[in-house]
Specification:
- It contains seven helices and ten strands.
- It has 273 residues and is an alpha/beta fold.
- The chain folds into two domains: 175 residues, 3-Layer(aba) Sandwich (Rossmann fold), CATH 3.40.50.360; 52 residues, Alpha-Beta Plaits, CATH 3.30.70.
- It has a six-stranded mixed beta sheet with strand order 2-1-4-6-7-10, with helices on both faces. The chain has a two-stranded parallel sheet with strand order 3-5. A two-stranded antiparallel sheet has the order 8-9.
- α1 packs across α4.
- The longest helix is centred in the middle third of the chain and has 20 residues.
- The protein is globular.
- The site of flavin mononucleotide has 25 residues, from α1 and β6.
Length: 273
């Protein structure tokens, strides 16, 4: 019998956190159960492993990066969480292009690590770095999520024994390929080494970027440098109160323009149970 609900998420710019929180709080209200929050976005949140039990319902959420679970977050999903028979709602957000294989991959990983996945959602959100999907999730998206919560709460209340797991999440068979970004000319672009640039006239060294970098690559004492990898998540750009950070790599900007031209149409939020 489920007694606790936990929202856990990797969410560099906060949209995945908001979606997971909403689903978890709604489930909590529907089942009159307490809700805890356990993000694993920044290094300080990844210092311990989490072990759940059949008394837990975990709302487990990540964004989609290049059509999959973000490759730098995947090891944490695999190594930090043990389901031990806990129920889970798998959630991916995506920035109005496509979630490709990310939801299927997340369901697979959760199942591999002892979770019993009873529901899932792929939710359209504003894109982290391109001007598409703005204003999403909107009322229609929220209605779909509310319907999912209502149906799952009923399933949990009516359950006699083990809850059925979901089927029918779309995606390819393994091995899953990453989406290959293209530029405005339609050709493949590579911007793996692109780094944020800092406008020194604006930066007041407050450290907001260092605190938010999910891979710990921005030193507090030198926030104008990037000492490790950059996953292009845009947390440092998004949370800079001085608007001092940006990306100016031409290949990256060409990909951003291509997304804005090609994927302006509204994508669809989908739920599964
Ligand atoms: C590096 C990177 C890759 C992304 N790849 C995709 C993608 O393949 N498809 C898509 O629709 N959105 C993509 N997005 C957009 C994010 O999935 C989306 O904006 C997400 O809601 C951001 O979550 P967050 O606010 O929790 O960081 C990408 C964003 C980043 C930063």
């Amino acid at each position: 019998m489920i007694k606790n609900i936990c929202a856990t998420y990797f969410s560099p710019t906060g949209k995945t956190a908001a979606v997971a929180t909403r689903i978890a709080e709604s489930m909590g209200n529907a089942l009159s159960l307490p809700v805890t929050h356990d993000p694993f976005t920044v290094p300080g949140e990844r210092t311990h492993t989490r072990s759940f039990s059949p008394e837990d319902l975990v709302v487990f959420a990540t964004p989609t990066y290049a059509g999959r679970v973000p490759n730098k977050a995947l090891p944490f999903v695999q190594e930090l969480f043990q389901g031990n028979g806990a129920s889970a709602i798998a959630v991916v957000t995506f920035g109005n292009r496509s979630y490709d294989n990310s939801l299927k991959e997340l369901v697979h990983e959760l199942t591999e690590h002892g979770f019993h996945v009873i529901g899932a959602a792929a939710v359209v959100c504003g894109h982290s770095f391109a001007g598409i999907g703005m204003g999403r999730p909107d009322d229609a998206d929220r209605e779909k999520l509310d319907a999912l919560v209502e149906a799952l709460a009923k399933k949990i209340k009516d359950a006699q024994g083990t809850l059925p797991t979901i089927a029918g999440v779309p995606g390819d068979e393994q091995p899953w390929a990453y989406y290959q970004p293209t530029g405005v000319n339609g050709e493949k672009t590579v911007f793996l080494k692109a780094l944020p640039v800092v406008d020194e006239t604006r930066c007041d060294r407050c450290g907001a970027c260092a605190a938010r970098c999910p891979v710990g690559s921005i030193p507090y004492e030198a926030p104008d440098t990037t000492t490790g990898i950059c996953i292009k998540c845009h947390a440092c750009v998004h949370f800079c109160p001085q608007d001092a950070r940006s990306f100016c790599d031409p290949a990256f900007l060409s990909h951003k323009s291509m997304l804005e031209t090609t994927y302006a149409r509204p994508a669809v939020t989908e739920v599964f149970l």
